[in-house]
Amino acid sequence: CSRPQKVCLCPFLPIHPLKVSTCLYIIQHPAEESRVLRTVPLLAACLPPDKCKILVGRRFSEDRYPELATVCRSPNTLILYPGAEATNLEEVAVMSASPSVMIIIDGTWSQAKDIFYKNSLFRLPKQVQLKTNISSQYVIRTQPTNTCLSTLECAAIALTIMEKNKSIQETILRPLQALCSFQLQHGAQIHHSKEHLLKNGLYDKPMPKNKRKLRRMELLVNNVKI
């Protein structure tokens, strides 16, 4: 896990990489690469190298990324990104029998949105989303809403659905739970979602002057899906 011995996460990783038929392509925003507490390295440590491929960047053209372009054009490729056009992943998994490829964008919500909409390749695969009310266990990082999940959590749930194996989710989440536990023991604080803070009058930062951002906060308070 490349962490100091006192906070080593290796005992919480699977002894052998999980056997999965689904291949993940993690499209990582460059800003995530420099974060200390990232979840993607933990995800990669749980899977075989050929089943978890990480591409770092903001723009992905067909000329520079021919392999990714081929993957995006394949009928067996899915992209996990919520929206009006997205289908419930569970519905897709029921109809799919062949091994699939899943693309997941790793970054803040604004970074993920920028990558998705400014790269035409990512609108070629079938768009899917997770229908879940599970609260994030990544409590050492602030999320927009209570049900926003980290990249590792999204991958764990998605693989569990695609592989039809409930133990996958438990195995992949184990190192994340240990990471959060270690951080809390060493002085980190639990980060409630922005939604929770706003609804309970605990948001202590200046309100944005930008009308669009202010409107998004109002929607969070009123529990409107954004």
Quick gist of this model?
It holds the Pfam family DTW. It is an enzyme of class 2 (transferase). The protein is of the alpha/beta class.
Features:
single chain, 226 residues, alpha/beta, Alpha/beta knot, 2 domains, six-stranded parallel β-sheet, 9 helices, globular, tRNA-uridine aminocarboxypropyltransferase, tRNA processing
Integer-rounded radius of gyration: 18 Å
What's the architecture of the largest domain, going by CATH? 3-Layer(aba) Sandwich
Apparent shape: globular
- The CATH topology assignment of the largest domain is Alpha/beta knot
Alpha-carbon distance between the two ends: 35 Å
Helix content: 25-40%
Tally the beta strands: 6
Widest sheet: strand order?
2-1-5-3-6-4
Total of helices? 9
| Name of the CATH class of the largest domain | Alpha Beta
Biggest sheet overview: 6 strands, parallel
Report the oligomer: single chain
Assign the structural class, choosing from mainly alpha, mainly beta, alpha/beta, alpha+beta, or little secondary structure: alpha/beta
Topology:
Elements: E1 23-28, H1 30-33, H2 40-46, E2 52-56, H3 66-73, E3 77-80, E4 87-88, H4 89-95, E5 101-106, H5 109-117, E6 126-129, H6 151-163, H7 167-185, H8 194-199, H9 211-221
Parallel strand pairs: 1-2, 1-5, 3-5, 3-6, 4-6
Description of the molecule:
It comes from Nycticryphes semicollaris. It is an enzyme of class 2 (transferase). This is tRNA-uridine aminocarboxypropyltransferase. Pfam families: DTW. GO terms for molecular function: tRNA-uridine aminocarboxypropyltransferase activity. The relative contact order is 0.15. The chain has 226 residues and is α/β, with parallel strands linked by helices. The chain has a 6-stranded parallel sheet with strand order 2-1-5-3-6-4, with helices on both faces. It is globular, with a radius of gyration of 18 Å. The protein has 2 domains: 181 residues, Alpha/beta knot (3-Layer(aba) Sandwich); 31 residues, no CATH class.
